Amino acid sequence: MAGAIFRAFIIALLVAMPSLLLPGVVSDATAMVVLLALLAAMMTFVEYNSEFPSVVEFRYAPPFNRLRVGTLFLVVFMLTMISRGGVYPTDLSLVLTALGRLVGTAVDFPYSPVRLMVLMMPSNTSPVLIDSVRTAAGVSYCISVSAVLLFLGLVKFFGWPARNGAFNVWVNLPMFDPTAGDVLSRLTRDARVNIILGFLLPFMIPALVKAGSAWIDPTVMANPQTLIWAMTIWAFLPASMIMRGIALARIAEMIGEKRRRAYAEAEAQGLQAI
């Protein structure tokens, strides 16, 4: 229960962080954010207070979910502090703003996702908003890519999740139906779909917003909270999908290796594999 309470607190703090740190938030928006934070905390507590998972994947395969939550928390915190620094500058916010502008400028090259986010904005957008979008996009995208590379390193060089003990597929994948076809082929297919979509989404989302500019106004990102959550979702969702794809591919590889060992043992004993 203590672990479930701690996780619920972290999620609630993550949801409420921009409203708590940014100035000028209206009372109605604050009340809505508090409600969403309590709802997210309650769902997290119920999930982790139960012995058997119902929705969250890889609960017993750390640090998969810890890495994702840590990445999300870091992105929201940095973007919030950069936005806050425009009104109440501090040493920390000034350092993060300078670092964010440096990163945003470095990754703003032709055909990059950050460049597409900048080009998504209307031609009459103010330079200040363009700079804010570039900085937020660069920070969130670089942090998300770093998380993907870190998780890939855990899989390739540290043997995730085998080094954490026995891996139970059905407990760690509660939404996966083991009776609908071959498990190995379905895991491989889902892994490829997640990785492909995760790679394409940072490029597709700006193009879709640009194409739907008659219904979607990108200038709403002048609101700091809208900018923070839009950039966080744009960068974190694809990264999370790629991490999930890598994890599913790793599980499929482990199942394939176990099958090959079982078949080899059966042949060595003179039995016929079914």
From TrEMBL:
Question: Which spans are transmembrane here?
Answer: 6-22, 29-46, 66-82, 132-155, 195-216, 228-251
| Alphabetized UniProt keyword annotations | Membrane, Transmembrane, Transmembrane helix
From which domain of life does this come?
Bacteria
Give the protein's recorded name. Uncharacterized protein
